[in-house]
Design a protein that fits this description.
The chain has 15 helices and 15 strands. It is an alpha/beta fold. It has a nine-stranded mixed sheet with strand order 7-8-6-5-4-3-2-1-9, sandwiched between helices. Strands 10-11-12 form a three-stranded antiparallel sheet, with no helix packed on it. A three-stranded antiparallel sheet has the order 13-15-14.
Length: 384
């Protein structure tokens, strides 16, 4: 089983914290949709190469990310989905997700989407407080955030919403209110991320000029613990560091990434993975369009070394409830890697930040917030 990710590189306005590839000019939107459709067709034979089992390879998930995919019309979305069905074998009832912003989700639009092949919405709420949304430079307001969820939950069963924690000036009480507001809508999936300061973003400049306070790691850690405790108490499973789902509502698309499944990414800046190599499209709309028009794939390819694949497995495995299998490490990467991993993990085991049960290495509740740092200490760069 494999997936297709479609990157829609357009947003109405730039959020202060975002460093993803997008343009706020919609002038090339129609050309871009046609180019993405063409890339979908150009790459259809890749799935024969992705499949090494001899069985027919099928698409299990289709994911519209960005950018802001909800700036596309329903006709454009349906057109791209139809191009996938024309060129690939798709399973019955695939998970088809659309990332959307509240300001794009009027009642009429939600009803239209509910009649389309889209069966999962991922809604970028980020906060239910007006001051947070203004600081982030979000295109929606608090009223729109609540209204869109009221309507969306009438027409969609499978909804995820995003929240950001560690926002400067956000008290624990305010953060709890955000979580409780999200829970009040009965959504079965919540993704939540710490506010991070990426270079060359508006947020970075605001912090440098003293207009916004720098995010505090201790505050973010406290918010994270509140998040985990509250959501688990409400029946959510913390299945990935930033993701919480009710039973049967884990994101199939994202789970595929973490479990090392193969996927194709189309559109500017989209990444692809075939188990051996990783490729990524150029992060420039004009150059992407020109390349596709010239029948050339605008991507670079990197063949992953054994150490690269080991490091990726450590990073993704530690972030999930599935953990890192020591049996798999030995079988797939060799005894040297297993010996190295056990040696590096000793200090974290002694500090009770990780545990090993049934030959699976996982962070403890105490170590969850530190997962990425722990993973980096377990990486191996020069074993080969």
């Amino acid at each position: 089983m494999s997936g297709i990710y479609i990157h829609i590189p357009f947003c109405k306005q730039a959020c202060n914290y975002c460093d993803f590839h997008f343009s706020t000019s919609m002038k090339k939107k129609e050309d871009m949709v046609l180019a993405i459709a063409k890339e979908i067709t150009m790459r259809k034979n890749e799935f024969e190469l992705l499949n090494s089992t001899g069985n027919e390879n099928q698409i299990e998930t289709i994911y519209f990310g960005g950018g802001t995919p909800s700036v596309l019309s329903n006709e454009e979305i349906n057109f791209l989905i139809s191009e996938i069905y024309k060129n690939y074998k798709v399973v019955d009832n695939p998970e088809i997700t659309l990332e959307a912003n509240p300001d794009d989700l009027s009642k009429d639009r939600i009803i239209e989407l509910s009649k389309s092949p889209i069966n999962r919405l991922s809604i970028g709420i980020q906060s239910f407080f007006e001051d947070d949304l203004k600081m982030m430079n979000r295109a929606h307001n608090s009223v729109e955030a609540k209204k869109c969820l009221e309507e969306a939950t009438k027409y969609f069963d499978n909804i995820s919403l995003d929240l950001i924690y560690g926002v400067p000036g956000m008290s624990n009480e305010k953060w709890k209110h955000n979580i409780e507001m999200a829970l009040s809508f009965g959504v079965p999936h919540i993704s939540s991320y710490a506010l991070t300061v990426e270079p060359k973003t508006a947020l970075s400049k605001l912090i440098q000029t003293g207009k916004v306070a720098k995010p505090n790691d201790e505050v973010a850690s406290a918010h994270f613990m509140i998040l985990v405790e509250t959501l688990e108490a409400n029946g959510f499973i913390h299945y990935e560091l930033s993701n919480f789902g009710k039973k049967n509502y884990f994101s199939k698309n994202n789970s595929a990434y973490w479990l090392g499944k193969k996927y194709i990414g189309v559109g500017p800046s989209a990444h692809s993975y075939d188990g051996i190599s990783r490729s990524w499209n150029i992060s420039n709309n004009s150059l992407y369009l020109k390349s596709i028009q010239d029948n050339q794939l605008p991507n670079e390819v990197e063949i992953l070394s054994v150490s690269d694949r080991y490091n990726e497995y450590i990073m993704t495995g530690l972030r999930t409830i599935w953990g890192v299998s020591l049996d798999r490490i030995e079988k797939e990467f060799g005894t040297d890697y297993l010996v190295y991993l056990k040696k590096q993990a000793e200090k974290f085991l002694n500090d009770e930040l990780v545990s090993i049960e049934n030959n699976i290495l996982k962070p403890t509740p105490k170590g969850k917030f530190l997962t990425d740092g722990i993973a980096s200490d377990l990486f191996y760069l020069n074993l080969e």
